[in-house]
Amino acid sequence: MTRGKQKIEAQRRNAERNQKPKGSQLEARAVALKASCPICKVQLANEKQMGDHYASKHPKEKVPSEPS
C-alpha cells in the first residue's frame, strides 16, 4: 500500500492513462474521404477506389472523369 506522494503520483498517472484520446475517428475519416459516388453516395478516398467501386458495384456505368 502506498502513502502520501506515491499515492498522489499513482493517481495522476492512472488518470492520464485512462483519459480518452483527443479528436475522433469520424473527423479523421471526413478529412480522408474526398470523392463520392454520384449514384449511391458512397464516399471514397481516391480515383483508384472510384474505379474499383464502379467495376464492382456499377459495371454497366462509365467511371466519371472527375470525382464529385
From TrEMBL:
Subcellular location: Cytoplasm; Nucleus
Domain of life from the UniProt record: Eukaryota
Organism this protein belongs to: Rubroshorea leprosula
Alphabetical keyword list: Cytoplasm, Nucleus
Domain Small EDRK-rich factor-like N-terminal: from-to ranges: 1-29
Residue ranges, annotated region (Disordered): 1-25, 49-68
Compositionally skewed regions (Basic and acidic residues) per UniProt: 1-19
One of the record's GO cellular component terms: cytoplasm
Protein name: C2H2-type domain-containing protein
Keyword Transmembrane helix: no
Residue ranges of every copy of the C2H2-type domain listed in the record: 37-57
Keyword Lipid biosynthesis: no
